[in-house]
Amino acid sequence: MKANTRREFLADIGRGMLIGSVGSSLALDLGISSAFAGEESSRLTFGELEPLVSALQETPLNKLQTMLVSKLNSGTDLQTLVSAAALANARSFGGQDYIGFHTFMALAPAYQMTRELPTELKPLPVLKVLYRNTAQIQDTDSQHHEILHPVEPLTLPDNTAGGPLLQAATRSADFDKAEGTFAALAQGPVDEAFNELQYAIQDELNVHRVVLSWRAWAMLELAGQKHAHTLLRQSVRFCVNSEQNLEKYHRQPSKIRTVLPMLLDQYSLLSKPLGKRKAEDAWVESLARTIYRSNPEQAADAAAAALAEGFDPEAVGEAISLASNALVLHDQGRTKAFPDKPLGSVHGDSVGVHASDSANAWRNIARVSNKRNTIASLIVGAYHTAVGRYNSKLNELPYPLQDQLEQVTAQDPKQLLQEAEAAIRNQDQFRAAAVIHQYGTLEHNARPVFDLLLRYATSEDGALHAEKYYSTVKEEFQKTRPAFRWRQLVALARVTASEYGKPSPGYAEACDLLRINT
Prior knowledge:
CATH topology of the largest domain: Zinc Finger, Delta Prime, domain 3
Strand content: under 5%
CATH architecture of the largest domain: Up-down Bundle
Structural class: mainly alpha
Mean pLDDT: 93
Shape: globular
Number of domains: 4
Order of helices and strands: HHHHHHHHHHHHHHHHHHHHHHHHH
């Protein structure tokens, strides 16, 4: 959005002179970009991070992990690597590549995972996702066909709310109009731009739409607010692309576009203060059951009614989270095999994992938003969870079933952890879930369970979801009341057993370079 500063301009000149003297191959090995302002004046650049951002796009994949470990050894920290990777991803894909935006959404969770690992293991989740990031950029040749470029802000009408303007712009399916509108909004406070973006996010029910928005916001903590426009505009382009697909395939927009404003008006939610009414366990369980078993319109209405009655938004969000968790526990597993997702598996883009990640994103957006979007996010989140229920084949009772629970007789925590790990390695979802259910029922310390499951969230691909779902469960466990929180870890144990056996590309090489025995 702004021209290069004099310092950046001189840095670009110096970088170009150095590349000319050492050659482009060595420049990449040194982490110096071969693209600079003199070559491509329309390129979106990132100041001091630019050499690293470009290196993450351009370093040959067979040299990437060596380069990254060298960076770590010379003092570059993991936060800087993750921030540069996020910018490389955004510039390359702009929220419009399936594996690309999945990888972006895994970056912040991977960094969060490092905080739970011993010092020598901390780089592993980050190196794993950075490898995936560069691999997809180069597989699609996106380093030479970048999506994001500088954009000029439009002049917006005076005294007009930004959210509805952006919503209309994305609905127009016009990239230039939507991008220019958001660029204008992004000139103001970052939190206001994020709130205005939510009008477009709430227009359709898509896990990637809402999680990308949340993960872009979460990335600001790592990359800094100065990159807010770059990171958040991915969601604008995602929404426009979605609108174009509706037109292309002659699909009707989601009914949420009429349901949400109707409920806001019906319950006069915007004229009331947010409630602080505390909810008993039975109330949360009842609302969760209603959301799980209702059609989408009924689920949205139940959430709106609860908010109108003055219940704390956290309690409503907790019920949505429990309903989405139930989708993992009731899932019968895939009835058709896909690459990396065999028959009976529940990892990757399964209904429960998708619903849980979506609910987590809706809840987090509700926490950081203004009153209007706190309310709207929870209503749309309830609707979204119920959509998953109606589109899936689910078991009447949650797993693990009673006979599966009866097969677990151990009570010692160490023995139970050993049995859980054996079940994971045997890809026995129901045994793994039953063992962790028993562990939780006995009220053992949860940290060793997280440590066990974190190990596999780090090593396994999880069909692009291992990091995100681990992060979702960790957050939801912490935010869920004791009566229900162990359901989250039971679900994670099941998903971990499902995804075991497919290590993430680049993981073994990272272990070798770090001299880690796995």
